[in-house]
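ARCHIVE CARD
Drawer: 12
Card no.: 0347
Subject: one protein chain, sequence and derived structure
Cross-reference: see card 0346
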Amino acid sequence: MAAIRRRDTKPEVSLRSALHRRGYRFRKDFAIRVDGKLIRPDIAFTKHRFAVFIDGCFWHSCPEHGRQPSVNGAYWSPKLEGNARRDRDQTAALQSAGWNVVRFWGHETEDTVVAAIEAILRPS
């Protein structure tokens, strides 16, 4: 599991590149302290207090593509449930601290994600 990336995954890098090409500037893997907890959104627009997370389908139990491994269920079930619980807790903590938080799945298209982020950053 040491080879599993915490940051700079392919969906993250692709999204960051698309946002940067459109002129957006942001912080990646930015550390935010909330209630003594350290939360690191994949992308943070600090001026707007806007955090973006790109969740992998397996690691965050995507309802569409997530699956339970067939081997070693006693380890993986609590692990994946804990990941989902941590995601909910982090989202709630950031929101209570005044941050706008959005989460996207790794399988969502780059255009869809960029359009959603732009809608929040540039409301019409």
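Annotation on reverse: The CA atoms of residues 96 and 123 lie 22 Å apart. The longest helix spans residues 73-96.
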